[in-house]
Amino acid sequence: MSSTKVLEESLSLIPRTLSECQEKQALCYFLTEYIVVPSDFDGIRGYLEYLRPLYIDAKPSSPLFSATTAAALAVFSSKPGRKPLLNDARIMYGKAVQLMKEAIADPVEVGSDLTLMSVMLCGLFETITGDESSLPSFGQHTDGAVALVKLRGREMLNSPISKKLFSAVRAQMVITQTIRCQSIVPLGDSIDNWQIPRTNYWESVANNLTTKTMQVPSLRASAARLLRGPMTMQLARDILDLIKEAKRIDGEIAAWSLDAPELLRYKIIGTSEEMGYVGYSERGTSEIYPGPVHAYSDLMIAVNWNSYRSSRVFCQTIILNCIERLVPPWERTITVDYRTTTRILQNLADEICASVPYHLGYPQAVYDYQNLMSSYRNQDNYSRDDSDRPRYTADPRAHTNNATAIGGYLLVWHLYVASSVVTIPDSQRRWITNRLIHIGERYGLSQAKVLASLGTKSSSSGRNGSITDFAPPRDLKWERTGGQHWRELLGYANDSSSESDGDGLYED
Description:
By secondary structure, the chain is mainly α. It is built from 22 helices and two strands. Strands 1-2 form a two-stranded antiparallel sheet. The protein is globular and about 65 Å long.
């Protein structure tokens, strides 16, 4: 090749304008901070790992190209001196939305992974840039993604990329419908109840959890319908049935944690004090919450555990709300379910807090799972079928060494749920709020700061602002003379010595 040809090709790689140079810097930063490089870990990584190959193949005129650029510019605009790029990001986002509309109208493009990934990235853009008024937009993008999945049907399960996108859409749909207190959108006969056929060991474990947590939105829909308005004996019986249903769903989710293999379990690697974080104050400014610190074998395993915890928070809060709706305030603390539920809610919030150091890439929050994997392979009852054999060659530090922002992004929702637990101490709520603000500022996630603000508002204005909570009506009047017939109906013992965990669904 002639020196002239080499020079021409080299010059073609140099950005022609300052704007193009900034876009390339933003893209490199975004791909580095938000995408963990694919590894040999079989299983349950997020859908963004496939953005690189899709983006490489995307044309500049495609919605994916514009959506990726918009998200990259939005993230990069949070860096010092880069704030003007946010306006460029919004312009590029508008272009991406227009191109998506054109792609959805195209009978070929509407069924492509590129179009669906574009919709998901627009949802990510709202997470990066959104304020309180734009929170509904995230749900609208989720609705659009659900519609695309429904249109494509079983074809969504034919390739690894499509299947990952399907899982991501399903996870976001569960969150959106939980917030809305609406049941899961059915897919009809194309894909039975949003189920994914088992392809490997890790996906089976993750899919099993999602199947159980998908019941939570319907449970919240029932709670929203029942836990309002004047009390009648029939409503009291309906609320009792709701308690039983909440216990059933919570028990199924809790069983997932008991059945999880050791390799998927978290390890308590020490305490905040042992790691030198002793500066905790009532203002909640410590980097690590007092108590145990968790480590996980992979970031997405940590996400699954926090999904488990958040789902149980919703179930347990409904049980708490039902008790509060039925039982006078002066009798609640002597009921078994009330004491048990408040204890479980505290444990779940504490465990979410204990996962924060790992999510945010603290170097101390690492456990060597390689020896455990070797031991696990040698167990006699371990399947020798290669198609069913879990492989673990991932680095638990993967998101610490690369893509640290994705750990914060995947933690935001669960921290917000933990901050909404009505029974936790105010000091813990302040600590969670400060962590959300930290994530928002460090990684350029505006929505994290918005959720921190919402948590503060709900705390200061009373319980009616909590996302997890169906607080009793403020004008609810309790008559002491009516206490006895409520106890007979509910079967609550008026004796604090009778505490028991009942049917065992509350074991944790």
